[in-house]
């Protein structure tokens, strides 16, 4: 029986299908197998009269005798033999889809998952996640895709992405969201042992590097400064978080970056971390997926791995 893709247009005649219930399909399969009303009734533990009535209904619906009497025994009609394999496959698919529980073994699974995330998220949780995968699920592969906030949920809806990890996504009713962790911003600059604290004046005198997913030179902190009739001099704007520590380590610039990433880079790159001179609200990193994958065992396993990776940060 030819399988039909989920996204293929299929016209279903519900009116005619209502005449054919699952019990009749079961009876048809056993009648063809046994070529006997009596044996079919015994196999399904029902009376012979009930099985005879089922055969009568099948003959009417299919416009075929199904079983015909010969001089010695009952014989399956050519049409019934022709459809027997397809009927058996339909019953097998119903059983596997509705009655058999799906299983997922990460140790033997061969899966590829696609996650949309910024380089900051990848750097923050990636090490813990990759260690978990290589020890628990050597056949699992992860593809990290660029995070384009404007259309990332469309890729989720189109099944091109499995999970999006980012703060503040405009999710719809068919999306599922789980908060992973809370993040705060810190000021990062080269540590020359001359600065113990960062005043607003010192902060504004320095050239600034901005991380922005938009093609601009103004971030949320600039709006805060504007409300206090202040402004900063942004000399570099980038969409890449991970480039910033390298730029700062070799310049006199300052940047606001998430604390977890800053902590990872500070010691190796001789960077100084200090609170911003004017408080700025942090953000919550969330994991978002489409509701179609809510009960998918492989998907559930991956989501738990991400949660566990966050705990190990």
UniProtKB/TrEMBL annotation:
CDD domains named among the record's database cross-references: PBP2_DntR_like_2 (cd08464)
Domain of life: Bacteria
GO molecular function terms attached to this record: DNA binding; DNA-binding transcription factor activity
Protein name: Transcriptional regulator LysR family protein
Keyword field contains DNA-binding: yes
PROSITE patterns: HTH_LYSR (PS50931)
Keywords per UniProt: DNA-binding, Transcription, Transcription regulation
Pfam (any one): LysR_substrate
Family from the record: Belongs to the LysR transcriptional regulatory family.
């Amino acid at each position: 029986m030819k399988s039909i893709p989920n996204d293929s247009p299929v016209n279903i005649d519900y009116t005619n299908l209502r005449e054919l219930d699952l019990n009749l399909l079961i009876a048809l399969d056993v009648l063809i197998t046994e070529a006997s009303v009596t044996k079919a009734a015994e196999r399904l533990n029902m009376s012979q009269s009930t099985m005879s009535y089922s055969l009568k209904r099948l003959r009417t619906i299919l416009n075929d005798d199904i079983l015909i009497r010969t001089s010695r025994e009952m014989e399956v009609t050519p049409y019934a033999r022709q459809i027997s394999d397809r009927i058996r496959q339909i019953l097998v698919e119903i059983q596997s889809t509705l009655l058999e529980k799906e299983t997922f073994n990460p140790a033997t699974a061969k899966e590829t998952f696609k996650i949309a995330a910024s380089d900051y998220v990848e750097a923050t949780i990636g090490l813990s996640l990759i260690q978990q995968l290589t020890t628990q699920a050597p056949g699992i592969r992860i593809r990290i895709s660029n995070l384009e906030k404007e259309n990332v949920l469309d890729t989720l809806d189109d099944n091109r992405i499995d999970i999006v990890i980012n703060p503040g996504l405009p999710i719809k009713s068919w999306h599922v969201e789980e908060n992973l962790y809370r993040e705060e911003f810190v000021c990062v600059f080269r540590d020359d042992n001359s600065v113990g604290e960062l005043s607003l004046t010192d902060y504004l005198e320095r050239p600034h590097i901005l991380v922005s997913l938009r093609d601009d030179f103004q971030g949320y902190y600039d709006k805060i400064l504007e409300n206090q009739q202040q402004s900063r001099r942004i000399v570099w704007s980038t969409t890449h978080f991970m480039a910033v520590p390298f730029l700062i380590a070799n310049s006199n610039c300052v940047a606001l970056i998430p604390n977890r990433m800053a902590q990872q880079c500070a010691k190796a790159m001789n960077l100084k971390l200090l609170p911003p001179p004017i408080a700025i609200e942090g953000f919550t990193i969330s994991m978002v997926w489409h509701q179609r994958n809510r009960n998918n065992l492989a998907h559930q396993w991956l989501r738990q791995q991400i949660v566990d990776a966050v705990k190990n940060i």
